[in-house]
């Protein structure tokens, strides 16, 4: 397995398409965020591993013995995170378990969902509170608000990866009485398919009030005005609230994938 030069990333859209449109994955292939790509061949790969700050993506025929050995060795290096997630197809779960054994855990199925701009269903925008767009320059204004730490952690995690002038460096938040009740953040954009991916948090005790629908709808409306034409969403199979929120907005399930977590050091 060799490390692939950025100039050859263009040869990997096809093989990674088996996972569907994971937007952070596409951001990496587009060269918008930092990543490391390894494969058997930089021109016509049969298997590949893409490592990013968000998640890691494994595709192709993972049964190759040398690939298995090389992949395990890479995850044990100093540069590899102690805890991280892998995205892969169900057919490859057996090889993931064979490669990492007790280092991996919590294998879970995920729904791949997609929304075309023309199919977006806008939620009514009446609400109890203020909808605000938080940007890197205004984030500190909310440091004394309840749930600020969670919003700060999620937002900065992605903002540190995107270009400083990226249009998606913002969080839509529903705020009342110095409390952030719900927030919608951007977790990727792809130049190659003109898409974005959003995520949402609704904090206790404000769940089941439609606030997730509200902040997501407001965010999508703004992104469509910016010119994005498609939007991706991923949730675990058992996360019914997330699936329902996406469905209300017009998302359709277009595929599935799997995620497992890797623990590098078994003694921690």
Supply the key terms:
2 domains, globular, Aminopeptidase, 12-stranded mixed beta sheet, alpha+beta, 268 residues, 32% strand, 12 strands
Q: Give helix % range.
A: 25-40%
Write down the secondary-structure element order: EHHEEEHEHEEHEEEHEHE
Count of DSSP strands: 12
Count of discrete domains: 2
CATH architecture of the largest domain: 3-Layer(aba) Sandwich
Structural class, by secondary structure, is alpha+beta
- Shape designation: globular
Task: Count helical runs.
Answer: 7
The CA-CA distance between the termini, in Å, is 29 Å
CATH superfamily of the largest domain: Gcn5-related N-acetyltransferase (GNAT)
Strand order of the largest sheet: 1-2-3-4-5-12-6-11-10-9-8-7
> Can you tell me the CATH class of the largest domain?
Alpha Beta
* Unreliable runs: none
CA radius of gyration is 19 Å
CATH topology grouping of the largest domain:
Aminopeptidase
**Beta-strand percent range:** 25-35%
- Give average pLDDT, whole number: 94
| Main sheet record | 12 strands, mixed
């Amino acid at each position: 397995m060799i490390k692939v030069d950025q100039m050859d990333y263009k040869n990997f859209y096809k093989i990674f398409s088996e996972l569907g449109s994971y937007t952070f994955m596409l951001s990496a292939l587009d060269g918008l965020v930092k990543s490391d790509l390894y494969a058997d061949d930089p021109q016509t790969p049969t298997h590949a591993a893409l490592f990013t700050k968000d998640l890691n993506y494994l595709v192709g025929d993972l049964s190759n013995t040398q690939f298995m050995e090389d992949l395990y060795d890479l995850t044990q290096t100093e540069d590899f995170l102690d805890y991280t997630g892998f995205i892969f197809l169900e057919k490859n779960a057996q090889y993931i378990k064979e490669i990492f054994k007790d280092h991996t855990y919590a294998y879970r199925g995920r729904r791949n969902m997609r929304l075309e701009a023309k199919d977006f269903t806008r939620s009514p925008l009446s609400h109890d509170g203020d909808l605000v767009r938080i940007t890197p320059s205004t984030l500190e204004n909310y440091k004394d608000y309840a749930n600020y730490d969670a919003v700060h952690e999620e937002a900065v995690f992605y903002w540190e990866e995107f270009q400083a002038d990226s249009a998606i460096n913002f969080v839509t938040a529903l705020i009342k009485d110095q409390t952030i009740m719900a927030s919608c953040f951007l977790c990727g954009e792809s130049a190659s398919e003109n898409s974005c991916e959003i995520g949402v948090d609704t904090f206790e005790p404000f769940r089941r009030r439609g606030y997730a629908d509200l902040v997501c709808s407001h965010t999508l409306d703004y992104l469509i005005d910016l010119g994005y034409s498609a939007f991706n969403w991923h949730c675990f199979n058992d996360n019914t609230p997330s699936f329902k929120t996406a469905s209300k907005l017009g998302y359709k399930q277009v595929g599935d994938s799997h995620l497992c977590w890797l623990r590098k050091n078994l003694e921690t």
